Amino acid sequence: MTTAPTAGARRGPAVAYLGLHRGIVELKAFFRERDAVVFTFALPAVLLALLGALISGVYEGSSVTSAQYLVPSMVAAGVASTTFVNLGISVAADRADGTLKRLRGAPTPAAAYFLGKVIMMLVVTVAEVVVLFGIGVLMFDVTMPTDPSRWLTFAWVFVLGVTGCTFLGIAASSLASSERSAGAVMNLPYIALSFISGIFYTPISALPEPLLTVGSLFPLKWMAQGFRSALLPDTILTQEVVMSWEHARTAVVLGAWCIGGLLLCRTTFRWRGRRDG
């Protein structure tokens, strides 16, 4: 005697399939908009090139230069810019032009829509990271690690960071009352967090203690630290807040933001704009 699959068992594969399909649609739509593609990749790349060219010096006790220290931090900033800022603006635009309303009528489960965005962001952000790596290698003589364990560290920090920032970008998009206001709503917290997370201020240990405390509550600081642990030698630990890369704490904080971001999405996400009721 066979038993029929439960509704939950059927729903899981269906959401995964719809999410994958939605991710492919999102990727096609993104790469069709050439101006969006150019500006998405250009902002972190230009910031890295300019800031890296303006700072100089070698940290005491290490062969790492100030520009090389900046590279993994800017990779984290690029991840946040692509996922949190650009995605939040994109979702706000989808809501304003009626795209979300039409998807809701399909109907598309909210989980499938979120999954599609995560897939799109993973692909786009990988391309962003490749661009930033290229600038680091060509302009600042950054040496890519050869130890597989360092690439494994980079991979799990990257996946957790992209996932958490994607969910937060979707959730924060609901704060924008219109597509026009979305840019200001998303960029203000991004810029503020970049400063208090030590992205533009090197080394991070030079930040005032109150800013370090606040920055440690958010994922950007931990993404940057995780990427530095993967891309820079351990001799640079003298410039960190503590003499440890704190991988376990990094995983816990980023994982918590993934869960918290998903819960925020589920509770704050709106298919319709405020003007639609």
TrEMBL record:
InterPro entries per the UniProt record, alphabetical: ABC2_TM, ABC2_TM_bact-type, Nod_factor_ABC_transporter
Domain ABC transmembrane type-2: 35-272
Location in the cell: Cell membrane; Membrane
Pfam families: ABC2_membrane
Protein's membrane topology: Multi-pass membrane protein
Transmembrane segments: 36-59, 71-93, 114-139, 151-172, 184-204, 247-265
PROSITE patterns in UniProt: ABC_TM2
One GO cellular component term: plasma membrane
Molecular function per GO: ABC-type transporter activity
Keywords for this protein: Cell membrane, Membrane, Transmembrane, Transmembrane helix, Transport
Family of the protein in this entry: Belongs to the ABC-2 integral membrane protein family.
Protein name: Transport permease protein
Provenance organism: Salinispora pacifica
Classification lineage: Bacteria, Bacillati, Actinomycetota, Actinomycetes, Micromonosporales
